[in-house]
Amino acid sequence: MFKKTLCAAAIIASTNAAAQVEMINVLEFGPNNTLFAADSYTGVVHAFNITPATSASPAPAFNLENIDQLLADAMGTSRDNVRINDLQIHPDSLEAYLAVSRVDGDNYSSAIAVINQAGEVGFVDTDADHPELKIEQAPAADFEFYRDRYQGRRLSFTDMDFYKGKLYIAGLSNADFASTLWTAGYPFDNSVAASTVEIYHDVHNQRETRAPVRAMAITELNGQDVMLAAYTCTPLVAIPLDDIKDGAHINGKTIAELGYGNTPIDIDIIFNPDFQGGGEPALFVSNKNQMAQVIPLKNIAEAVKGEGITSFDGNFFRRSILGGVEYPMSGLVQTTPLGDSHIATVRRDTENGDLELASFTKGLYMRLSDYQSEYEIPNYSYGEGQEMMQGFHNMLKTDEGYPEYIIQ
Fold first, then answer.
1. Model confidence over 46-74: pLDDT tens digits?
2. By the 8 A CB rule, do 209 and 181 touch?
3. If you write DSSP's letter for every residue of 222-249 in order, what string do you get?
């Protein structure tokens, strides 16, 4: 049940800075309650030390309606002026951290909101002293897509991942090869690497150097640390971390085309349960323009062993999800794993257009309360052979805040 809410690289590393934030659009948690926040307008990655709630919510699921209005009230503006740029979950407290922009014409002011499962909202103190990393070679301020529909400098930073003591940052630079990966140790010092990236995009029938990584995740495959990167139009690319060195030009291996005409929102390494006491590690892919996908990591590992996709097969609509499964998650704006059992999402309600902070149970990837079916008709009774379905439904009804609708 939804709770109604009223209310390349010239790089400078510094500490104890308090640079003004303008447009934070990427968040990533690091060690010891460190929240990395990338500001694409200023070219700065901030490292905030945060104080989470002392314990996680006993019910980790989110069922919050109208969070755009909740945030607007807290920021002293109207809901039309609120933009949610990213979502992360604190690994211990399970609170939601949202990169939020308040829009006033062409001007942006930025904040990091913290929301718990009860709908209580707070903000990270971005004015407090904190370490930061400045990357100078951001795209020009007047770089735009389709007149002023999308400002190019918003792609200065597109995603971040903290892995084995290093922060990996993807985005665009103003270098000849614009797609760039930056790597920095943390705590920040002056040892920062910048690499340019080139891929073969089969559906476009060309090699691409300017398209940035839109979403990435790092894991071990075949005994090697590998970055998995998803791009617009959804080629999935593998890049060994050993290739990411200062000054290197990387040729990523395209291992799949996950769907043309789509922008991936996020990709994450998860454990995908089978509800029979087992499951397997998988890559969760959320998308703007197609269903979410869950791809077994073992299948990805096999694809990484191969030669990859290196030539055009004549099919502009080529698509392969490596034996994965697609799930009906629509209206997604942002996604991220929530504890062991859920995926947290910011999504747009397709009925009324409101923004929701809602969670999905891993393994099912649906919300029962989105549907009006045979099961919801009054006086329905589960018949013989429906025990498993009844168990799933009762679990989801509790998870989504409707325990009174459980059928025993």
1. 999 999 887 788 889 999 999 999 999 99
2. no
3. TTEEEEEEE-TT-EEEEEEGGG--TT-E
Considering the chain, what is the average pLDDT of its residues? 91
367, 356 in Cβ contact below 8 A? no
Structure tokens given for 112: 């990091």
Mean pLDDT of 152-173: 92
CB neighbours (10 Å) of residue 211?
Answer: 19
Strand partners, 17: 130
- Taking Cα atoms as reference points, which of 169, 189, 191, 190 lies closest to residue 181? 169
Strand-by-strand arrangement of the 264-273 sheet: 264-273, 279-287, 292-296, 325-327
Query: Of the candidates 154, 180, 178, which has an alpha carbon nearest to the alpha carbon of residue 169?
Result: 180
Domains of the chain: 11-366 (2.120.10)
Alpha helices in 280-405 (DSSP H): 297-305, 387-399
Is residue 362 within 8 Å of 343, Cβ to Cβ? yes
Query: Cα–Cα distance between 176 and 148 in angstroms, integer?
Result: 23
Nearest to 348 by CA among 61, 74, 76, 82: 82
Q: What is the pLDDT of residues 328-369, one digit of tens each?
A: 999 999 999 999 999 999 999 988 889 999 999 999 999 999
